[in-house]
Amino acid sequence: LLTTNKNLKIYRMDIGIDKLEMIHEDHHGHGKHKHKLFHDPHIWLSFDNMIIIANNTKKALVELDPSNKVYYENNYESLIEEIIKIKNKAKDELKFKKDKSFLVFHPAWGYLAKEFSLNQIAVEVEGKEPSPKEMKTIIDTARSKGINVIFIQPQISTKTVDKLSKELNATIIKINPLEYNWLKNMKYVLDNIAKGLK
């Protein structure tokens, strides 16, 4: 984009966000595993991160459209109030569930888990379906932690999830990390995680 339009303004919404590291195993080179670290890109799935993103957005809009500064600042304040209200309610619901684990297909909820001292266990391994050995580990771990709910994205429908559901006698609940109404979605996700945690 910058090569075709050198005057294009870019405003980074992730400035100030402490990114979580994820490990990717590289299966090349004489059977040896090399570990590459990369950052979890799902930064918007956290209340604390969204406050930072909202502030970065407000600053960019004020710079681009200074005549409407008060309008942007008022909207920003209203949004922050809503975010804090939902976060505090969730904190209250989850206060006795610290260090509990929940099972997801795609590991999108790491920031949310960290924010509420929970553990996300992902079915998907490095963007791929788990091998039979990995599947056994997931089932054993889920059983030992009493997990009976699997959270999947609406776009995902796999035999792996169906098999897991039968093995664990677990309910499948769809949660969408890309839902348009972020506030409503985060409330829905946290309500379901709170209900699903034993």
List keywords for this structure.
single chain; 198 residues; alpha/beta; four-stranded parallel sheet; two-stranded antiparallel ribbon; 6 strands; 44% helix
Largest sheet, strands/sense/barrel? 4 strands, parallel
What is the overall pLDDT average? 88
Beta fraction: 5-15%
- Give the termini distance in whole angstroms: 48 Å
Shape: globular
Q: Which H/E pattern describes the elements?
A: EEHHEHEHEHEH
Q: Low-confidence runs (pLDDT<50, min 5 residues)?
A: 25-34
Structural class: alpha/beta
How many separate helices?
6
C-alpha Rg (nearest Å): 20 Å
> How many DSSP-defined strands?
6
The percentage helix is: 40-55%
- How do the strands line up in the largest sheet? 4-3-5-6
What does it look like?
By secondary structure, the chain is α/β, with parallel strands linked by helices. 44% of the residues lie in helices and 14% in strands. It contains six helices and six strands; from the N terminus they run E-E-H-H-E-H-E-H-E-H-E-H. The protein has helices spanning 47-64, 69-94, 110-115, 132-144, 159-168, 182-196, and strands spanning 21-26, 34-39, 101-104, 119-122, 149-152, 171-174. The strands form two sheets. Strands 4-3-5-6 form a four-stranded parallel β-sheet, with helices on both faces. Strands 1-2 form a two-stranded antiparallel ribbon. Helix 5 (159-168) links the parallel strand 5 and strand 6 (171-174). Helix 1 (47-64) packs antiparallel against helix 2. It is globular and about 60 Å long. It starts with 20 loop residues before the first strand and ends with a helix. Residues 25-34 have low confidence and may be disordered.
